[in-house]
Amino acid sequence: MKVRYHYVNKAEVKYCESQWTVKEAYEYLKETGYRSIPVLKDDGKTFVGFIYKVHLLEHFVEHNGKETDQIEPFIKNQDAYIFEDDSFFKTFLSIRRLPFLAVINEQNEFSGIITHSNIMDVLEDSFGMKTGGVLLTVGTKEHKGAIKDLVTAVKDINIEGLLTLDNGDEYIRRVILNLSGELSDQKLQKIVKKLEDKDFRVTAIDRIAKTN
């Protein structure tokens, strides 16, 4: 899964230019309602960092700064970017402390941003929030081949998604299976019994309605 399929395109992104004054940037942040936006240069082609509303306020209130001062000293997070061809899951390691990440294309030009909302969309998709389905949370004693055994036990059912939790735990692991939504209660109970006969423990069953 690549970043290029899960980010906000530049045409939809609010940003400011690196040559703006503090007043221009602050007024634009107030207008857009964001606490931070990207800063670009070279007519919007090159990413140079983020500007934060709080830093501009500190400049005005705590340091008696001038409205005509340039924003360059207040640009932060110059390394907060990821490339279009990077793995999407790389964002989990990079975005935690940030409001968003800039996305850079093959020409090293700014293409857009990836947000926490984009990450939630991908997670929701893995849980079947768009397609609907039945989520089974299955507990299993950790052993070699545990996932293979689990998938084999439900091989006659279409698995829409699979998510593992408690990775690295030496004793127990939880696995969330997203199964086809076309399962009757009777069929579902047969699946649960089959899993439990194989020493798996179904700890939760959730039906997810398909969203439009």
UniProtKB/TrEMBL annotation:
This is Cyclic di-AMP binding protein CbpA. Gene3D superfamilies: CBS-domain. Keywords: CBS domain. SUPFAM superfamilies: CBS-domain pair. It comes from the Bacteria. Residues 8-67 form the CBS domain. It comes from Metabacillus halosaccharovorans. InterPro entries: CBS_dom (IPR000644), CBS_dom_sf (IPR046342), Lmo0553-like (IPR017036).
